Amino acid sequence: MYPNRHPGPQPGQPFKFTVAESCDRIKEEFSFLQAQYHTLKMECEKLAQEKTEMQRHYVMYYEMSYGLNVEMHKQTEIAKRLNAICAQVIPFLSQEHQQQVAAAVERAKQVTMQELNAIIGQQMQAQHLPHAHAPPIPLTPHPVGLQPPIPPVSSGSGFLGFAQGAFPMPPTNGDMSPREKHALKDSLKKEERDRDRMSPRSDASSHASSTSSKPKEVSLAGTPVSKPATPTSSGSTTPGPSAGVKHGKYISYPFMPRSGTNMSSSELSPIPYTSAGPLTNGLAASGLNSFPRPPVVGFEAHGSHSAMRQTHNSIPGGKPAYSFHVSGDGQMQPVPFPPDALIGPGIPRHARQINTLNHGEVVCAVTVSNPTRHVYTGGKGCVKVWDISQPGNKSPPISQLDCLQRDNYIRSIKLLQDGRTLIVGGEASTLSIWDLASPTPRIKAELTSSAPACYALAISPDAKVCFSCCSDGHIAVWDLHNQTLVRQFQGHTDGASCIDISPDGTKLWTGGLDNTVRSWDLREGRQLQQHDFSSQIFSLGYCPKGEWLAVGMESSNVEVLHHSKPDKYQLHLHESCVLSLKFAYCGEWFISTGKDNLLNAWRTPYGASIFQSKEPSSVLSCDISADDKYIVTGSGDKKATVYEVIF
């Protein structure tokens, strides 16, 4: 009947030719492709994780290799000097003793590889290495007769002393000859060039190196050199921020580029620090910042934390402990949280991002008005005012206050309780007081101090007095009505970095780059207490309820101190320096932000983690609204973020 029609399916050769059957076949093929896509996606994610882990191991081994190389230079120089001393002392001995000592010295120089291997094996057995990680696959073959790299824990102790710099310390008696100094300097310079040439860089760090040499200046000169994790004697301090103060230059504290540099947000982070000291090139910065780190991994930047977590094992429930109670005698125990740690009146459940304020420069300071309507963001040279009552992320600022020179960063902004006056401090010797009540905001007064920079501000509860943390370590006390300097608290031996005042206005707390936190009696004008730490202090906050002071440190710890008792809490969720900290006005919780891109919310005082939020870049500043319903953060990717707190 239809001679030209395609013959139907033969037996054993089914063929779907109706529309419904064709759709079914398309659906089956789509399902098959979707399953394949899902499988490939899982494999891709697995490969990305493996790549991250390999990158992390590579960074660790690179750091160890460089540290051990410098240690070798140091030990060689020590041996050379000791040999010179022996040569000078031997002639004073009798002839018989001279021959014996000379023979003994020659025998001491004859060290075979078998003896070295035996010594290394004995040291590793003696240490037992209870929580050392087995070394991953070596990156390159090892020469015949040499041992593979020593595991991280055993080798870390070998070059802890290099946390203050990459070069060996000069002799205390200064007996190194000019020729030796020149030779050592040339050798270390060659090692530095070789290290930079061989280091792979991420896109961000390669951009930094191709544009100019300024990123290195920021890392090594603009950023204060962190003091080592272990206390050092006062005789071996590192030239760092204090040197800048003595020469009358402001310190680029503690995470910002030197003013005048034009850098992308990826270049603003300080050098990551580890238990063995700073990673001294762009490889480390790119390697640790380009890949997110899982919550618990084999290699962590702060090795002491891993040891502590393994020593104290875990809290009930099997999760690694991150909050520890430290008694007056130094005993540390994981904190068992009470059942109501994360519930109850005033305790939030989480925070939801509701707005992004694109400031255009790194946001070093933020504050929120009361009632919550305006947000003030401080960046390079100016403060921008935003109306957050209007929804939407693309709303422009309603005002811009040009406070400092264009290349100088603003470090702190404080709004008086009446909402009509704003005080701004930063990389300048002058504080500016702005009248916000006028039709156009204007400067109504300026307060000038002898210090080249102001790092933090605090306002007394009655809004009559302003306190400024100066880069020379002094705390300036200003009368806001008469606009005069009425007093200076002197005690910090390095820049004063953070400040807070008690709710009754009688006590002031300050933290400094000299590793101390100090309290001051404002009625008597004297220092009350001093707390010494092994790390620089970057942020602090005093609980509105009293009793507790939270301190954020360069070492990544948050410590919660009691104002009168020796007991304290140590919190270990940050993976890098803690840059800002703020208590909620109810006093039941507080937040901290860090160079690790994290915003953490903690329960007062024992530090149960309420919620955590990760941003794309380092979070430099934070504030909480007076009703505790909103959080604002400022970050290195040139924006501020507004969160709604959900109860």
TrEMBL record:
<feature type="domain" description="Groucho/TLE N-terminal Q-rich">
    <location>
        <begin position="15"/>
        <end position="129"/>
    </location>
</feature>
<feature type="repeat" description="WD">
    <location>
        <begin position="489"/>
        <end position="530"/>
    </location>
</feature>
<dbReference type="InterPro" id="IPR005617">
    <property type="entry name" value="Groucho/TLE_N"/>
</dbReference>
<dbReference type="GO" id="GO:0005634">
    <property type="term" value="C:nucleus"/>
</dbReference>
<dbReference type="GO" id="GO:0090090">
    <property type="term" value="P:negative regulation of canonical Wnt signaling pathway"/>
</dbReference>
<dbReference type="Pfam" id="PF00400">
    <property type="entry name" value="WD40"/>
</dbReference>
<dbReference type="InterPro" id="IPR036322">
    <property type="entry name" value="WD40_repeat_dom_sf"/>
</dbReference>
<feature type="region of interest" description="Disordered">
    <location>
        <begin position="150"/>
        <end position="245"/>
    </location>
</feature>
<feature type="repeat" description="WD">
    <location>
        <begin position="447"/>
        <end position="488"/>
    </location>
</feature>
<keyword id="KW-0175">Coiled coil</keyword>
<protein>
    <recommendedName>
        <fullName>Groucho/TLE N-terminal Q-rich domain-containing protein</fullName>
    </recommendedName>
</protein>
<dbReference type="GO" id="GO:0003714">
    <property type="term" value="F:transcription corepressor activity"/>
</dbReference>
<feature type="compositionally biased region" description="Basic and acidic residues">
    <location>
        <begin position="177"/>
        <end position="200"/>
    </location>
</feature>
<comment type="similarity">
    <text>Belongs to the WD repeat Groucho/TLE family.</text>
</comment>
<feature type="compositionally biased region" description="Low complexity">
    <location>
        <begin position="201"/>
        <end position="213"/>
    </location>
</feature>
<dbReference type="InterPro" id="IPR019775">
    <property type="entry name" value="WD40_repeat_CS"/>
</dbReference>
<keyword id="KW-0539">Nucleus</keyword>
<dbReference type="GO" id="GO:0005667">
    <property type="term" value="C:transcription regulator complex"/>
</dbReference>
<feature type="coiled-coil region">
    <location>
        <begin position="30"/>
        <end position="57"/>
    </location>
</feature>
<keyword id="KW-0677">Repeat</keyword>
<feature type="compositionally biased region" description="Low complexity">
    <location>
        <begin position="228"/>
        <end position="244"/>
    </location>
</feature>
<dbReference type="InterPro" id="IPR001680">
    <property type="entry name" value="WD40_rpt"/>
</dbReference>
<dbReference type="Pfam" id="PF03920">
    <property type="entry name" value="TLE_N"/>
</dbReference>
<dbReference type="InterPro" id="IPR015943">
    <property type="entry name" value="WD40/YVTN_repeat-like_dom_sf"/>
</dbReference>
<keyword id="KW-0853">WD repeat</keyword>
<dbReference type="InterPro" id="IPR009146">
    <property type="entry name" value="Groucho_enhance"/>
</dbReference>
